[in-house]
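input
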Amino acid sequence: MRRGEFTKGCRVVRPRYLPEKLADDTLYLVENDAGEVYLVSFRCPCGCGDELPIPLRTPDPWQLEQHADGTLTLRPSISYRIGCRSHFSISANRVEWH
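output
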């Protein structure tokens, strides 16, 4: 995966449970029984291979916006403080590096 963006055609999938190994170029949205997304998970876009689970529940600060064109925006930025130390946002399925 190139540093700087998810490749064109990034898949968004909604599995009942996360697979053992996440695929590149894929955003996983995990829903509860009521159909509400409570977890976004993906492999770090820097290419290090680390898996990043992002919980969407209080008191965690992240908000997921799903656009009409099927793309996703996740805010605020993700600051990965261990491993590769990447700092980025996801906006309309594209990575914005900070």
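quick obs: The chain has one domain: 11-97.
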